[in-house]
C-alpha cells in the first residue's frame, strides 16, 4: 500500500488484514474462508491480544471462549458488553488480565464467582477492569468501526464512572446549545480489538453473515476489529444468502474466517435453532462460587473435550431435545426480477 | 399526561374513597410483588413507552396495558419493540419476545435513536442504593477499587436515567442502607448531579420510588424525593425511620388504595398465571 | 410532562409529538394512524417548515412532494441528500426558499433546469443553498436522531465546503492521535426537520414500517424529525409484519401517520413492486430546461390531478405494465416458537 | 500489492515488448471507452474492493474481475456489496444490483464502517477539474455564490477521497481547462490540502489519472501528479500541452500496451454486450 504510514490512522493499517500474508485470504474468487475453531483461535488469538466476544444474551460466542481456554492463551484483554458466564470461565482459566465491560453478572440469574474473587479479593490475582455503561461500550465499537477519534454520547454527566475511568472525557460542542450557551458532552475513545468473535445463524463460505432476532452490536464489533471470526450454526449455499441481501448483517469484506460450529452459543441461544439453557445459567452462580467446583467444571467440560463437537455430544441428544424450538417462519418478500 | 406534582396515588388521604375496604384488600394473601406491581401500574397511566427489565417492571407494564395505559409499548434494552410473547419471558432477550414482535432493532439504534433520541416516557430502574436526589448505585458496595461487593454495574441504567423523560424505581427493600444519605458510588446520576458536572440532562430523573411502605416522589431538577403516599397502616414516621436521610413529607400526603380485586385478578389470571414473578 | 423545560434539549420537547393534541395519535391500542396524503400534508406541513424527503434513488417520496405542491406550501426548507426531480418540481412550484443537500442533479441523467436557474441566475428568485457531502448529510440526520449536539466525520479536511458553509466546524479530540499529538476533526450539527416523509413497501396500521432493498438513511431521517409520515405501497395485517420483526426498519413509536399510496415513488422505484422509470429521468433535463414546458408539466401532472391515484391512472395501465417486475422471493427464516 | 511508483503501465517504454503490434491494436475500431476501461482495469491488479459509480468505472472493475483481480468486489454508494446483476445496471441503485446481491446495507454503515472504516482499496471519482495535487472540483464553474455552472456537488466524492486507500480518476477530456493550475472550487481535497487544514488524511488521494493521452500518477502525500505512461503515438509534449500546469514527466516514462484482443473480447462479449457504456 502506497499510503505514507505517517498519515494513516485508526486501526493500524487495516489493509494488512487482507494482504494474503496470513494465508487465509482472498485473491481468488470466491474466497472460501471456512476454517476450524482450532485453526481460527491459533491464527488470530495471541497472548496479550485484545479480544472482543460479542452477542447480547443471544448468540454468545461461548465455543470460541472455550477454545481460547483450551489453547491456554494468557494476558488477554477481553472486551465484552455483558461479562457473563463465558468471561467468568476465561477468568477462571487464567486467560484474562484485563476486562473492558459494562455489565458484570450472570445475566439476571446471579453472580460470577470468579470475577468477584478477582475484583473483590485479587484472588488469585488482580483484574484490571475498565468500566463503561452499555451505550458507552456500543459507542466505543462504533468509533472503532468508523475510525473516529472519539464518539459523543449523552451519558455520564454527574456519574462517578469518569472518576474511575479516565477514558471518559468531555468535549465542548462548537455549536451553541438550545439556550445559546456553550455545551459540553462526554465522549468515549474507539476500541479496535485485535480480533472479534461473533456467533451467527448462518454465513456463506466467503463470510457474508446473516443474523435474525437480536443483532446486538455484532456488526460494529466486527468492523472495529483488525481481524474478525464469524462462528455460525451452518454454512449455506450462496443462493440462500443472496435470496435476502438485507438479512446480511456482516458483509464478506469484513470477515477473515468462518467457523462452522453448531450449538456454539450454548448456554445462550440461537433464534430459530435452539433455546436458552436457563437451568445452566441458574446453576452457574453456585458452580462459580466454589473455586474447586469451577475448576472441576472446566476440567470436565472444556479441557476434557477436544472441541465443541465433543462438548455437544457429551451433553447428549436428550438434552438438546429439551432446547429444541418449533417453527415460526418469516413470510417471504419479493426482491423483484427485471422482466 | 401530567400527574399532579405531589399526589401520584389513586386515593387522596382526605378523600371519601373506601380506604377501609381497600385496606382489607391488602390482606396477607396479597404478595409483595402483587402490591408493588399493581401500584406501579397505576403510575403508568397515559404513558406510551416504557423501558423495562423483566420481573416487577414488566408485570407493572402488562397490568397497565390492560388498565390505565392501553396503548403502552414496552421497549427492551435488547432491541425488542412491541413484543407479543407466547410465554412469560425469563430475560429481556428471551426468544419468545422476538418471535411475533413488531420490531427488533440493533442496539446502536435502540440506545441512540430510541432512548437517547427521547422516545421513552418512563424507564424502570433498580438499584442497591438510592439517595434523596434519586441518584442510583448499582456498581459496588464499598470502594470501587477494592469493593466489599462487586455488583453488575450500569448496563444501560446510566443511559436510561440520562434520557428517559422520567424514571420509576421499584425497591423491594426500604431500609436506611438502601435509602442512603451518601451513595458508595454513583452509577446513574439524576439531573442535579449532571448539571453540577456541566452536562444538560434530558430527563427529569427519578420521579417515583415505589416500595412496600409507600411512594416517594419528585418532579424534576432541584427537588428532593418526598414521601407522597403511604400504604394503609403505614405511618410517615415508619417511612422516615426506614430512610437513611431526613425524608421530607408532602403536605398532601395520601393513602394508597390497595390492589383491587380487578387488578389482582388480571395479575393472577392474565399477566402471570404461573406465578413466575408473583412470588 | 413533568420535565423542567429549561433542561430539555434537542428536538424541542419530543414528547409533544404524541400528546394527542394533533388528533391523530395514540392512547388507544392499537393505534390506527392511516390518513390520506391530503390529510397528512395538511396536518404536518406548514409554510416556513423544514421538510425532509428521504429515499436514496430507491423509494423517493415523490407523491408527498406533489401533494405539497398541490396545497401550495411556501417558504419551505427542503432537506434531501440527493436533490433530484421532485426537488426541481417543488422549486418550480415556488414552495422552496432554502435547500439543504449534498447532490443537486438529475441522477446520472442530466441537469435540473429550475435548480440551475435559481442558483445560477436567481431566476425567478434566489435559492438559499446549504451544501454538504453525502456523509455530512447522513451524520446530520444521525445527530438529529440521537439528540447529539454535533457528529464527527473524517470529511472536509482541506475542502472549500467549510468556506461556504459555516455549519462545518472543527473539534479537537480529547485523546492523543496515533502520533501522540492532538487531533482535529470536522463535525456537523444535527438536523431536526419539522416533518420527514419517507416511502416504504409496507407498514401495519400503527406504523411499523418494513423496507427491503436499499434502505438509505430513512430510519435516521424519521427519528430526527418532530413528526414523521410514512408513505407505503400497501398496509398489511399485523401478522405479516410480525412474521419478520428484523425487517421493520422504523418502529411504530417513531411514526405519526401512515399514508397508503401505491406507486407513490414514481419515477423512482419500489424494489419488488415496480421498476424505475428511466425514460422519465432522461426526459426531465429537457422538460426542466424550458421554463414553459416545466410549468405546463406541473399544470398537467400535479395541479391537474386531484391526487396521486389520478396521476397513476393518467399514466395508464399499459405504462405500468412496462415497469412491472417479476418474482425473486426471499427464502423464509425460522424465528422459532417455544414448544 | 504495491505498484512501482512511476511505472504503472504494463509495458515499459524501453522493453522489448511488441510495441508496434500493440500500437496497431489501438486502431480506430477501439473506442475511447474501451481504451480507458481496459487500461483502468489493469491498474486494479490485486485490489480487493473498489468503490465505483456506473459507467467506465464499473466496466473497468468488471474487466479486472475477469482478468487481473479475480477477487474484486465492487461496493456501491447506495449500499450494495457483492452484486450479481442479471442486467447491466443503469444507476448505482438499479434494482438489478439489489436482487441476488450478497449484502445490502444502510447508508450510515456504508459510509461509516465500510468507507470511513478503511475497507475500500480504490475509489473511482470523476470531476470537472483536477489540479496537480489531485484535488477535485465537482461543485461549480465560477464562483460558488453565483456560479456560471452549478454542477452536482460532492455526493460521496469528498468521503471517497478522504477514506479510500487510493483514488483513480478516469477523465474523458484531457485539456487545460479540466487539468487546471487552480480549481474554481475544491470539492474533494487530496491529503496535502487536508494536512494544510490540520486534518490527518486516511488515504493517499488520487494515485492514477487515466485519459486518452496517457496515465498521470502520484503515490501519496507531498507528490505531484507526474506523467507516467503514454498511449502509443502520443508524446510527452502532447500531454504537457493539454495540461494546465507545468506537468512533470517521470524518468521511466513507459508506453501503454493497447487493449489486447482478449481484453476487447471480454469487454464486448461479457461485460457490456449491448454496448450501453462502450459507446
Summarize the biggest pleated sheet of chain A.
Answer: 10 strands, mixed
- The CATH homology group name of the largest domain in chain A: Glutaconate Coenzyme A-transferase
Mean pLDDT of chain B: 89
CATH superfamily of chain B: Glutaconate Coenzyme A-transferase
Q: Helix/strand-derived class of chain A?
A: alpha/beta
Low-confidence stretches of chain B: 1-26
Query: How many strand units of chain A?
Result: 17
Summing up helix and strand content along with how strands pair, one would put the structural category of chain B as alpha/beta
The outline of chain B comes out as globular
Write down the CATH topology of chain B: Glutaconate Coenzyme A-transferase
Radius of gyration computed on alpha carbons of chain A = 21 Å
Can you name the CATH architecture of the largest domain in chain A?
3-Layer(aba) Sandwich
CATH class of chain B: Alpha Beta
Features:
heterotetramer, A: 339 residues, alpha/beta, 2 domains, ten-stranded mixed sheet, three-stranded antiparallel sheet, globular, B: 279 residues, Glutaconate Coenzyme A-transferase, two-stranded antiparallel sheet, 9 helices, transferase (chains B, D)
Q: What is the topological layout?
A:
The complex is a heterotetramer, with 2 copies of chain A (339 residues) and 2 copies of chain B (279 residues).
Chain A: E1 34-35, H1 37-44, E2 50-54, H2 62-70, E3 76-79, E4 82-83, H3 85-92, E5 96-101, E6 103-104, H4 113-121, E7 128-131, H5 134-145, E8 151-153, H6 161-164, E9 169-172, E10 184-188, E11 195-203, E12 209-210, H7 218-224, E13 227-235, H8 238-242, E14 248-250, E15 257-260, H9 278-289, H10 291-303, H11 308-315, H12 317-322, E16 325-326, E17 337-338
Parallel strand pairs in A: 1-15, 2-3, 2-11, 3-5, 4-6, 5-7, 11-13, 13-15
Antiparallel strand pairs in A: 8-10, 9-10, 11-12, 12-14
Chain B: H1 19-25, H2 32-43, E1 49-51, H3 56-66, E2 73-75, E3 80-81, H4 95-98, E4 103-104, H5 107-115, E5 122-125, E6 129-130, E7 136-137, E8 140-141, E9 149-150, H6 157-163, E10 166-170, H7 191-196, E11 206-210, E12 214-217, E13 226-230, H8 236-242, E14 248-255, H9 261-271
Parallel strand pairs in B: 1-2, 1-5, 5-10, 10-11, 13-14
Antiparallel strand pairs in B: 3-4, 6-7, 8-9, 11-12, 12-13
Amino acid at each position: 500500500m502506497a499510503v505514507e504510514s505517517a498519515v494513516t490512522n485508526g486501526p493500524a493499517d487495516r489493509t494488512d488484514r487482507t494482504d494474503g500474508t496470513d494465508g487465509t485470504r482472498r485473491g481468488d474468487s470466491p474466497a472460501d474462508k471456512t476454517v476450524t475453531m482450532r485453526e481460527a483461535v491459533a491464527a488470530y488469538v495471541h497472548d496479550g491480544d485484545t479480544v472482543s466476544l460479542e452477542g447480547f444474551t443471544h448468540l454468545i460466542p461461548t465455543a470460541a471462549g472455550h477454545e481460547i481456554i483450551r489453547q491456554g492463551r494468557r494476558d488477554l484483554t477481553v472486551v465484552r458488553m455483558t461479562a457473563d458466564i463465558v468471561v467468568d470461565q476465561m477468568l477462571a482459566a487464567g486467560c484474562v488480565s484485563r476486562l473492558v465491560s459494562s455489565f458484570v453478572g450472570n445475566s439476571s440469574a446471579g453472580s460470577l464467582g470468579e470475577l468477584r474473587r478477582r475484583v473483590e479479593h485479587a484472588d488469585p490475582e488482580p483484574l484490571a477492569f475498565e468500566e463503561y455503561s452499555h451505550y458507552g461500550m456500543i459507542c466505543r465499537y462504533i468509533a472503532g468501526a468508523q475510525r473516529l477519534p472519539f464518539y459523543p454520547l449523552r451519558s455520564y454527566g454527574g456519574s462517578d464512572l469518569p472518576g474511575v475511568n479516565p477514558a471518559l472525557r468531555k468535549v465542548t460542542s462548537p455549536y451553541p446549545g438550545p439556550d445559546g450557551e456553550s455545551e459540553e458532552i462526554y465522549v468515549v475513545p474507539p476500541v479496535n480489538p485485535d480480533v472479534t468473535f461473533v456467533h451467527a445463524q448462518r454465513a456463506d463460505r466467503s463470510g457474508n453473515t446473516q443474523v435474525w432476532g437480536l443483532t446486538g452490536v455484532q456488526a460494529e464489533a466486527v468492523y472495529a476489529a483488525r481481524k474478525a471470526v464469524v462462528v455460525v450454526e451452518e454454512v449455506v449455499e450462496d443462493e440462500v444468502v443472496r435470496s435476502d441481501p438485507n438479512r446480511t448483517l456482516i458483509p464478506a469484506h469484513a470477515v477473515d474466517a468462518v467457523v462452522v460450529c453448531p450449538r456454539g452459543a450454548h448456554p445462550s441461544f440461537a433464534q430459530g435453532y435452539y433455546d436458552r439453557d436457563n437451568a445452566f445459567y441458574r446453576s452457574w452462580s453456585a458452580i462459580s462460587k466454589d473455586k474447586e467446583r469451577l475448576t472441576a467444571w472446566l476440567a470436565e467440560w472444556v479441557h476434557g473435550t477436544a472441541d465443541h463437537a465433543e462438548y455437544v455430544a457429551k451433553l447428549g441428544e436428550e438434552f438438546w431435545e429439551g432446547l429444541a424450538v418449533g417453527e415460526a417462519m418469516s413470510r417471504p418478500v419479493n426482491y423483484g426480477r427485471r422482466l | 399526561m401530567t400527574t399532579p406534582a405531589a399526589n401520584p396515588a389513586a386515593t387522596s388521604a382526605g378523600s371519601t374513597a373506601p380506604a377501609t375496604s381497600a385496606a382489607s384488600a391488602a390482606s396477607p394473601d396479597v404478595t409483595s410483588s402483587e402490591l408493588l406491581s399493581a401500584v406501579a401500574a397505576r403510575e403508568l397511566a397515559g404513558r406510551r413507552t416504557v423501558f423495562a427489565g423483566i420481573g416487577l417492571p414488566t408485570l407493572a407494564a402488562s397490568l397497565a396495558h390492560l388498565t390505565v395505559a392501553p396503548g403502552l409499548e414496552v421497549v427492551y434494552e435488547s432491541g425488542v419493540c412491541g413484543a407479543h410473547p407466547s410465554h412469560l419471558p425469563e430475560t429481556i432477550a428471551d426468544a419468545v419476545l422476538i418471535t411475533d414482535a413488531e420490531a427488533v432493532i440493533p442496539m446502536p439504534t435502540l440506545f441512540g435513536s430510541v432512548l437517547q433520541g427521547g422516545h421513552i416516557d418512563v424507564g424502570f430502574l433498580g438499584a442497591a442504593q438510592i439517595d434523596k436526589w434519586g441518584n442510583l448505585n448499582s456498581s459496588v458496595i464499598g470502594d470501587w477499587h477494592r469493593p466489599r461487593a462487586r455488583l453488575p454495574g450500569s448496563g444501560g441504567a446510566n443511559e436510561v436515567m440520562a434520557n428517559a423523560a422520567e424514571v420509576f424505581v421499584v425497591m423491594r427493600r426500604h431500609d436506611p442502607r438502601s435509602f442512603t444519605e451518601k451513595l458508595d458510588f454513583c452509577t446513574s446520576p439524576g439531573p442535579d448531579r449532571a448539571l453540577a458536572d456541566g452536562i444538560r440532562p434530558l430527563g427529569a430523573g427519578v420521579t417515583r420510588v415505589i416500595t412496600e411502605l409507600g411512594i416517594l416522589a419528585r418532579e424534576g431538577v432541584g427537588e428532593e424525593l418526598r414521601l407522597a403516599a403511604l400504604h394503609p397502616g403505614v405511618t410517615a414516621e415508619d417511612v422516615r425511620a426506614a430512610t437513611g436521610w431526613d425524608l421530607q413529607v408532602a403536605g398532601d400526603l395520601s393513602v394508597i388504595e390497595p390492589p383491587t380485586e380487578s387488578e389482582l385478578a388480571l395479575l393472577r389470571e392474565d399477566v402471570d398465571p404461573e406465578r413466575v414473578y408473583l412470588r
